[in-house]
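Take a look at my tokenised protein here and describe the backbone shape.
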Amino acid sequence: MRLQGKVAVITGGTKGIGRVTAIMMAAQGAKVVFTGRSEDAGAEVVERIKQAGGEGTFVRADNKIEAQIAGAVHKAAELYGPVTILMNNAIASDDVGSGKDSHVHELDTNVLDEIMKAALYGTIWASKAAIPYMKQVGRGSIINISASSSVGAIPARPSYQASKGAINSLTRQMAFDYGKDGIRVNTIVVGFTNTGSDSFKRMLANPDIKGAFEKLVLTPYLGESSDIANGAIYLASDESKYVTGTMLTIDGGALCHQAQPQLDFAKMRAEAAAK
């Protein structure tokens, strides 16, 4: 197993990417503690982890409250030993699909605070709690979750972009500061990924929206949560022992090209030659 003997903490692990990663990391041998705010959802993920032959524990924690997120990290160490994997995945409920993040001139500061606290502050707070355990054993992997829109903007999401752009920069800083302690820090830049949430279901039920996303990616299919989880498992494992300070983009190739109209160059040449 690729993560045997490792202890992982995953924030925002009751749904979407975090949920799938928790189950898959546990199946690869890691002892997993994951956070969220729904006891029922947490219990369901614990049961899925058991069915996969793994071991996991849910800790109810709000990523916007330092004491709670630090408490989850300390609980993992208490139950399983020093934390060696941290995946900073949680975001604010005021973000995805809420419509509350808006243009800067319309932005409610309370919404800005909620999004920044959950994504950026929560990443710092969880890392702050986990790093001493990693230093204790001389090894660790911190995996921050960012978004392709942090390097290529989408409309009306200034708070989200600011939080994810800051996480990209924070990743490099922590990689520099803790590399000699055996702690690797990387970011996964997530492109359009169907997490199965209600907002994604609504978008994909619209043929025009689904078609636009299918045109954006270069693969013949859209991404799923397991695609991101596979990247996280690689970064958490010893297979990536020489990888730190990087931004691993998993987006179906969306960022590697510019949006272009459909051009038929052969037809254009033939028309030019006919003139």
